[in-house]
Amino acid sequence: MPRIACVSRIDEFGDPAPDIAVFPEYTSEAGVMLAARLYPDTVIVAAIRQGRFNRGFLLHRGRNLVNYRKADSDGTTDGAGIPAEIPFAQIGDFAVAMLICKDVDVSDFLNATVARLRAANALYKVLCIPAYMGSWWFQGMDNPLPQFAGVTTALCNHPDREGRARSFIRDSGWRPLALQADREPIVATV
Q: If you average pLDDT over every residue of the chain, what do you get?
C-alpha cells in the first residue's frame, strides 16, 4: 500500500521510505535536494524560497516535474500569478498535484488543479500542499470540504510557525488518515 508522509527533515522519512514525501513551505533547498538524491524513487514535494518568490518542486528521479511559482503573495514573498500549466505530474499509479500554501485560497487555481487530478487516469490522486499557515486555515475541517472531494490531500505545515495550523493527510472523502498532534512527522497509508 502506498505511503504518504509530511516531514520537516530527511531523517523523518522512516523505513521504508514513503512513496510521496511533502515538505513544508520555506524548506531549505539543500535539504530537499539531498532527499531527492538519497530517495530517487520517492516523489518529493516542497516549496523553496528563491529570491522574491517561492518555487514549487515536485521531484522524481532527479527531475523537477513542475514549473510553478506561488501564485499569491503572502506578504513575505511576491506572487507570480496563476501558472500557465497546472503543477501536476503522473508517476506510475500516482497523479500528484501541488499548491503552495495560500494558493488554496485562489479558487480558480484550486478548482482547476483539483479538476486535473480528478480527471487523471491514476489509481491514487494526491494533492500536496507545502505550507506556512496560521491556525485559522482549515478551521472546522471535520466537515467535508467539497472543493477537495475525490482527491487525497496532504498538507505539510512548517513546524516553526507560531500559532500554526497542524499538518494533516485526508482521504478522498475528507476522512483523516493522519492528523498532527504537535510538530511530529505524520505518515498515512492510502
A: 92
